[in-house]
Structures are given as structure tokens and as C-alpha cells.
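Bug: C-alpha cell stream looks shifted between consecutive jobs. Job 1:
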Amino acid sequence: MITQAGRMRQVQGVGHGDHLCLAFSDNAEQRRVVTTYLSDGLERGERVLYFADRCAPPQILDWLGAAGVDPGPALARGQLQVTTAADGYLAAGSFDADAMVTALRQEVRSSLTAGFTGLRVSGEMDWALREVPGSGQLPEYETKVNAVFAGQPASAICQYDARRFDSAALSTAERCHTGVVELGELYSDALLRLVPGFRAGQPALHVVGTVDYRTTAALASALEKTALRWTGDVWVDMGKLEFIDLAGVRALAHAASSLPAGRRLHVVDLAPLLCQVISLVGWDHEPSLIVSARGAEA
């Protein structure tokens, strides 16, 4: 079973065959990911196609310019095209999943014929919330795109604004992609990385590496200053955790006990042995702390 944390990809590492979901709740985070993704594609000699919706096309070009990438030459030689979702996904006035899949296949071929090293696509998916004809085909389309890019010199990042899409829609979007884009780190050193993101459409803190006496304070701080300020339940994804000591577990239990009544802290994808340790110590008696073993449904 591939855990959610195991599907996370840094935007700098996006490569051919990737079809990734970007769920974000911060404009600055969207800008960071988009700018990096587009500029990397231009640098690699790929053809870059962007479908804007909530943002206007000139805004995307301004992001590139502010990052030191002059979009003018790429636009002139056809390497970069920034258009709207209305002229892309909805060119026929409605959304047709099969027609869009066919169009993407053709874009891959034409990009290679034109001498580019591949195709790189990104689109803002807000248009699907306007109940345009055919918008219900979006999950079907996202699933089919996986096959379009598999083994091909092409990649895509589909953008879902978590402030507009509900948790069910975000969860569906995550499942329909081959991976998810990792958001900016809250903390990183040689032992531990703490990365905000989403799990099953809910905001989650992903813990990567080792939590011990050297890093427990960082975990406690991330929980207190960020995760506990989210609304609803708090999810802590341990799918890439290598080790956690009792002090680290105590920090999780303390964070759970600090939640207001009715909210819970879900620690998911934890190694079964560590779940047993929590049970032996008795911290699983804290009603607001829910612990799920790796591979179990959470």
C-alpha cells in the first residue's frame, strides 16, 4: 500500500510521466509552486502550456518575470502558452473528458515534432465549480490523463484551491492523480522534515524522518503554531516516519489534549510496533487522540 506521504513529490523533482495534484490554501504557495514548475520546464527545453482560471494569464507571466524569467522569448517561439480554461478545457462551451484527453495526446506529439524535449501542463481547476456542462466528468478525465502521460515525455500539475473545493472533492482529486505536490516545509534539518499538506481532502502535517530528543521541540512547535490552528480535526501523517521516541509521542498526546472539545488529532500510518507502545503507555486513552497503524484505514 502506498501511503499519502509516499505519494508526495517536491515540485523541483517533477519529471516525465508525472501527473500530480496540487491542493493549496495559500496564494503565495500556489505562486511558488507554479513559478518553479513553469520555469523549470522552460529551462529544460519543454513546451509549457498553462490554463488559467481564477488568475488572469498576465498574472502568470508576471510571476515568471518576478522570478527572473523573461517569458517574452518563450512566448515568441511557441515554447510557452498561457491561456484560459475557457479556451482550453471548455473550448467547445462544455467539458468533454475524452476530447480533452485526445487534445493532450496531440499536444505531446506536436511538442516533440516542434523540437521541444517534452510537454509540461498546469491548469487551475476552479472552472469545475461553476457547474458547466460536463464538469461532472472531471474525475474520469483526471484518471485518464494518467495513461496519457505514463511513459511519455510529459507531465502535469492540476491545481485545486482548498478554500473552494470541499474535502470530498479534494480527496477524489488526490486519488485520481499519480501523486501530490509537496507544499513548503515548516521545518527541515538532517533528521526531520515537517511538511503541511492534505490527506483525504483534510489539512495534514506530514512527518518525515526521526523524532527524538533533538527534534521533538520542532514537532511540538509545528503542531502548536500551525496544525492546531486549522479548523476541524488535525491529521498527522506518519507514513515516512523512521523513528519516534516517547518524548515525541508525548508531544502528540499533549497536542491532542490541547484541542477544543469535539476535535481530534489523528495520527495515521504509524508503524504497528509504535502503536503498541502508545497503547502500553496508555496514551491512547486520551479521547481526542486517534492512532491508526500503517496500512489501516483511517
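Job 2, same session, no restart:
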Amino acid sequence: MTSAQRQRNPVQRGIERLFFGSRWLMAPFLAGLVLGLVALLYKFGVKLWGFVASLGSASQSDVLVGILSLVDFSLTANLILIVICSTFENFVRPINLADHPEWPDGLVQIGFAGLKQKLISSIVAITAVNVLERLLRLDGDFNPTELAWVVGCLVAFAVVMVLLALADRIAAQAKH
């Protein structure tokens, strides 16, 4: 115990332990996200099964929309996994990558700036996939207002992504 630790009173040490110990309250949230990932896997399997079963009678457009839908599931699963791993490492317990050399670099040692970029990039990609799906389904029930909103959201997310990247770059340069 250092001299600074000895000088603090027991109430301060107790409050500190309570606050830093509360980080473990994140574990049930992360377990819930893991269950959400399992649910998404189930829905992906159902979608994949339906997609494969309909391939014989599907048009080229239907095949492309089906593939984009599967990509959408995959991107969403990636997003959930990134949130689970980075939240655990940043807020619950640090992970020593040397103890897990087989783990992908993209899932550990993600700082807050990196997490923001990965999250917004995933959201932009998911939105872009949804826009492509809607564009491929343009037929008799075309709703230009709905399409404009979807494209507008994609553009807004892309602008936010660029602004966050610029802000992070400016902040990094200011540190040096």
C-alpha cells in the first residue's frame, strides 16, 4: 500500500471500491448481447434456409436482395460482437492479447475513438445494404418519400462518420 493510499480515509477507499467494482454490473448487459447474437444467428439460419429453398424460382433481383439480407445479418452480428468485446475490455477488465494470440486484433485493444469509428462504419454499411435492398425492389409499390428518407439517413450517417474521423484526427494531432 502506498503512502497516498494510507492517507485516504476508509470512506474514500470504500467509495472507490464501490464505484470501480460496479463495472462488473456491465456483465449481465454483455450476456444479454450474447443472447441477442444467438437470436440473430437463429434468424440468420431461418433466412438462409428460406433463401436456399427459393433459389430455383428466384429472379436475379430476388437473389441479390437475399444475399444483401444475409450480408445485413452478418454486419449486424459483427457490430454486436465489437460492442461486446470492446465494452468488456474498456469497462470491465483489460485483456492481455499476449495471453490470447489466436484472438483477432480487431476485437481487442479498441479504444473509444476506434470503437466510435467501428460502430458508425458498421451502421453506415448496414444502412447502405438496406438502401441497396430497397433499390433492387423498386417496382409498382415505389414510394419516393420513403426512398428519400432512407438515402438521406445513409448520407447523414456517412457525414457523421467523416466528421468523427476528422475530430479524432484533430484531437490526435493536438496531443502531439
